[in-house]
Design goal:
The chain is an alpha+beta fold. It has four helices and ten strands; from the N terminus they run ββααββαββαββββ. A four-stranded antiparallel sheet has the order 6-5-9-10, with no helix packed on it. A two-stranded antiparallel ribbon has the order 1-2. A two-stranded antiparallel ribbon has the order 3-4.
C-alpha cells in the first residue's frame, strides 16, 4: 500500500469520510492516479438529515431576489424647500469665503506694492529747497505770524507738488492725536503728503484743541491716528 488515505471531508455535512484502498484499475481508470499507484475509494457515508436539508437550502436558494433599485419615497414640498434652502446657504457660505480670501490677497498685494513704492521713493533724495505754501504760492517772510483767533500760522510751508510727486517714504496719514489733551487733529492734504514724502520736514505741528504748536519727533507729543482707528508711530519719525 502506498500513501495515506485522503483527508477530504464530506462536501454535504463536512463529516469525516472513511476510505478503502483499491487497485488503480478498479477505481476510476479513465483518470490519472491522484494518490500514487494505489487508489482510494470512499466508503458509503450517511449524512445527518439536518445537514442534508441545510445543503439543499444553500444550493437551491428559493428566497425572492433582491431588487436592483431601492424604492425612492416621494419628497414632500416642505422637504424639497428645506433642501433648496440648505443648498443656497452652503453656496452663500462658499461664496463669502471666496470673497474674503480674494480680499485678503488684494490687501496683501497692496501692502507689497506700497512697500515697493516707498523703497523706490526713498532712493530719490528729497530737495527741501523746493518749497511753497499750502496753496502753492511762494513762501513769504511773514508766514509764521500767529492768528490770535485760531492760534495757527498765517501760512504753512510744504514741499512743492513736483517734489511730493516723487513718491512717499511713509504711508499717507492726515490725522494725529495729541498726547497732552488726547484730541485728534486733521491736516490738509499738502501737509499730509509732505509728511509722507519727508517725515522729518517739520519740527512741530498744531493741535486744534489746545490751539497751539507743539514739537514732533521721537520726543514729540503727537502720534499718528491710523485709518482703522489704531494708534500709529510718533509724528515726525
Amino acid at each position: 500500500m502506498a500513501t495515506n488515505p485522503p483527508c477530504e471531508p464530506c462536501f454535504v455535512c463536512g463529516g469525516k469520510l472513511d476510505w478503502e484502498p483499491v487497485p488503480r484499475n478498479m477505481a476510476w481508470p479513465w483518470e490519472p492516479p491522484r494518490f500514487g499507484p494505489t487508489e482510494w475509494r470512499p466508503l458509503p457515508h450517511i449524512c445527518p438529515p439536518e445537514a442534508v436539508k441545510a445543503w439543499v437550502d444553500r444550493v437551491f436558494d428559493k428566497s425572492p431576489p433582491k431588487p436592483f433599485f431601492t424604492e425612492i419615497k416621494p419628497v414632500t414640498e416642505l422637504e424639497q424647500a428645506q433642501a433648496d434652502y440648505n443648498t443656497a446657504v452652503n453656496e452663500r457660505t462658499n461664496a463669502d469665503k471666496a470673497v474674503n480670501d480674494a480680499y485678503r490677497k488684494v490687501v496683501a498685494a497692496k501692502d507689497r506694492l506700497d512697500e515697493a513704492k516707498r523703497a523706490a521713493a526713498a532712493a530719490i533724495p528729497v530737495d527741501r529747497s523746493q518749497r511753497t505754501l499750502t496753496d502753492g504760492s511762494p513762501v513769504t517772510e511773514d508766514h509764521r505770524e500767529i492768528n490770535p483767533a485760531t492760534g495757527q500760522q498765517k501760512g504753512y510751508v510744504v514741499l512743492s507738488g513736483a517734489e511730493r510727486a516723487k513718491g512717499f517714504v511713509r504711508p499717507y496719514r492726515d490725522a494725529y492725536r495729541h498726547a497732552k489733551c488726547g484730541a485728534i487733529t486733521t491736516m490738509g492734504r499738502t501737509i499730509a503728503e509732505t509728511y509722507a514724502r519727508d517725515p522729518h520736514f517739520y519740527n512741530g505741528t498744531f493741535c486744534s484743541t489746545c490751539r497751539a504748536h507743539f514739537p514732533v519727533g521721537e520726543d514729540g507729543e503727537f502720534t499718528w491716528y491710523e485709518m482703522d482707528g489704531t494708534e500709529g508711530p510718533k509724528v515726525g519719525t
